[in-house]
Backbone:
């Protein structure tokens, strides 16, 4: 076995050591031989660090949904979960809980089926409303493009806008998780309340992130959401009609 006492070079990259941490690769070389306590300390440190990041991220977003995004794009990133990891975690948690509790988030929209085409449109609208959260996941990049255009004077690029939307829509999933146990026994009003809460968090986050006055930020957010829904709906309807005409 290689002697790890009195290391002068980093075992990882071979660079000369001038302290406990390698200046090139960052490896911690304070340990000599590996012992059980070192493994346990590493595991505990990992979970404690992860838990603290989760707490800071979630609590910060719940208190002020735009501040975490603003700090993240400005360079303060070590203290929080990455936006993509946060979004994937909370969305997966939401979908898991809704499946376990057999809760379906949908709002009935009925169109008079006076023709086969109207019936196809009705079926498409029912499908979209029943899969609304999946639609949001798939079309989130489109939402980022729309917000980037509407808030173009704020000088945020696509990636920074996408980070903001990952965080703020992730908060929406947390809110949905909190009300999901009650949604199974309640009417559509509770489901609509969940969407309204998500909408409110998005507006508050936009005002802070884009550093806008409340009224202007609200108007621009509503406009961005309107354009996003319009584009998403148009694409979905176009695809539905194309499938209808191809299969008819």
Residues:
């Amino acid at each position: 076995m290689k002697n790890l006492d009195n290391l002068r070079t980093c075992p990882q990259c071979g660079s000369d050591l001038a302290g406990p941490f390698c200046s090139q690769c960052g490896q911690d070389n304070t340990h000599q031989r590996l012992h059980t306590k070192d493994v346990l300390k590493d595991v505990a440190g990992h979970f404690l660090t992860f838990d603290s990041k989760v707490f800071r991220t979630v609590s910060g977003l719940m208190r002020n949904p735009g501040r975490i995004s603003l700090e993240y794009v400005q360079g303060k990133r070590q203290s929080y979960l990455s936006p993509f990891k946060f979004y994937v975690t909370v969305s997966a948690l939401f979908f898991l809980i809704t499946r376990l509790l057999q809760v379906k988030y949908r709002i009935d929209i009925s169109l008079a089926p006076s023709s086969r085409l109207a019936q196809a449109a009705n079926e498409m609208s029912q499908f979209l409303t029943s899969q609304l959260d999946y639609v949001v996941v798939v079309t989130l990049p489109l939402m980022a493009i729309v917000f980037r255009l509407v808030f173009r004077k704020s000088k945020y690029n696509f990636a920074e806008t996408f980070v903001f939307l990952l965080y703020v829509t992730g908060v929406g999933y947390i809110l949905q998780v909190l009300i999901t146990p009650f949604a199974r026994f309640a009417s559509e009003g509770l489901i609509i309340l969940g969407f309204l809460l998500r909408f409110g968090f998005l507006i508050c986050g936009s005002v802070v992130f884009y550093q806008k006055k409340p009224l202007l930020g609200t108007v621009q957010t509503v406009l961005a959401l309107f354009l996003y829904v319009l584009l998403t709906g148009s694409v979905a309807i176009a695809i539905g009609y194309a499938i209808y005409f191809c299969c008819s």
